[in-house]
Write a structure and sequence with these properties.
By secondary structure, the protein is an alpha+beta fold. It has a domain of about 60 residues: Alpha-Beta Plaits. It is about 25% helix and about 20% strand. The protein contains four helices and six strands. The protein has a two-stranded antiparallel ribbon. β3 and β4 form a beta hairpin. It is globular, with a radius of gyration of 14 Å.
C-alpha cells in the first residue's frame, strides 16, 4: 500500500488548463447558503470562502462532480471542460 499523501497524489495529475471555467457558481444562491458544503466536499479544495463569498478555481479541478451533487444545479452550472482540456489521470 502506498504511503503517499493526498497532496502528493494530486501533484502527479496532469492538467491542460483552459482559459474558460467549466463550472460557474450562481452567487445569488451561494450568498444565501448556510451549509457551504462545496468547501468540504471538493477533494482538490477548488472552493474558497473570501470575504463572505465563495470563489472557485477551475485550474485544479478533478472533474469528480462532488460539488454538483452537494450543491445541485440551482447553485452550480457544471459541465466537463472543453475538448482536450482538464485533468489527465495517466500519471497518478
Amino acid at each position: 500500500m502506498s504511503t503517499m499523501t493526498m497532496e502528493q497524489r494530486l501533484a502527479l495529475n496532469k492538467y491542460e488548463v483552459d482559459t474558460e471555467a467549466h463550472i460557474r457558481l450562481k452567487q445569488d444562491v451561494c450568498l444565501q447558503c448556510e451549509a457551504r458544503s462545496c468547501l468540504y466536499v471538493c477533494p482538490a479544495e477548488c472552493f474558497k470562502e473570501r470575504e463572505g463569498k465563495i470563489s472557485f478555481s477551475h485550474e485544479g479541478c478533478l472533474e469528480c462532480g462532488s460539488c454538483h451533487i452537494s450543491c445541485g444545479p440551482e447553485a452550480i452550472e457544471w459541465s466537463y471542460p472543453r475538448g482536450h482540456f482538464g485533468v489527465s489521470y495517466e500519471y497518478g
